Amino acid sequence: MRSMTGYGRYSFKCDHFSIIVEAKAVNHRFFECSTRIPNEFLHLEEKIHSTVHNEIKRGKIDLFIHVEKAEFSKHKLEVDYELLKEYIKIANELKGSSNQVGGCLDVNTLLFDDRLIKKVEMEDKHAEEISLAILNSVTACIQELVDMKEREGDRLKEDLFIQLNHISNVLSKIETKAPDINLHLQKRMEERVASSLKELSEAVVDRIIAEACLYAEKADVNEELVRMRSHLSHFKEISENHDFPIGRKLDFLVQEMNREINTIGSKIHDAEVRQFVVSLKSYIEKIKEQVQNVE
């Protein structure tokens, strides 16, 4: 079992550059990965997302990639000398056309003309090496994150199993008490019907008693108890499974268990059993909250 929350960090350093990758995971219904990476390496995003999704199937992942002391950000300036010649030519023509035109071309002004002078990114000889190092660092960081998620998941599973054991114990009490409740209900209904229908024909009395017995049978909760035991067993089986994600499956089982408990509460009107049902609902609510954090 894995928790959906966790944190991972990995750093790599060599003579030419250093890389720090951090990953944070929080609850989310589906898989979502957000990556912050230097613009020069945006082409790696698809591979990075694929790497993350191969290991994590559910939750929101924020990935921060820092690249330092690398030479990939160097630029150089290129001048369009043909255009500069045109500037000079036009300037001279304007000055020659009228004695009212004065001044001269200013270098400081020309330096900020992006049509004349362009900033060009220099090719980085370490770019391929850095890209490979980034992907390897992401893989290592995600493994750190997964390790933490699994440690948190082990603690989560331990607590969930405690709640499941509490539920099992309460079910045992209901299973012990339910047959006596059903028998007592059936006998009481038979007596009340028989005493109140003395003046009716025997056929009518028999039919009414049969219907009363049918009502008593409908109050039987054996099927609900059997299904609850099955849900508990299935819950533990899924929890031990390493085929992720399992959170949605567990959430569905919790809903089914809650439905069975509500049915038991509606069928049996015994005061002690009602207290058992209240306890069961309390344990189910705790499980429901914890399952929201399971991947």
TrEMBL record:
InterPro entries: YicC-like_C, YicC-like_N, YicC/YloC-like
Keywords: Endonuclease, Hydrolase, Nuclease
Residue ranges occupied by any Endoribonuclease YicC-like C-terminal domain in the UniProt entry: 174-295
GO-annotated molecular function: hydrolase activity; RNA endonuclease activity
Pfam families: YicC-like_C, YicC-like_N
The organism's place on the tree of life at top rank: Bacteria
Boundaries of every Endoribonuclease YicC-like N-terminal domain copy: 1-157
Cofactor(s) required for function per UniProt: a divalent metal cation
NCBIfam families recorded: YicC/YloC family endoribonuclease
Family according to the record: Belongs to the YicC/YloC family.
Protein name per UniProt: TIGR00255 family protein
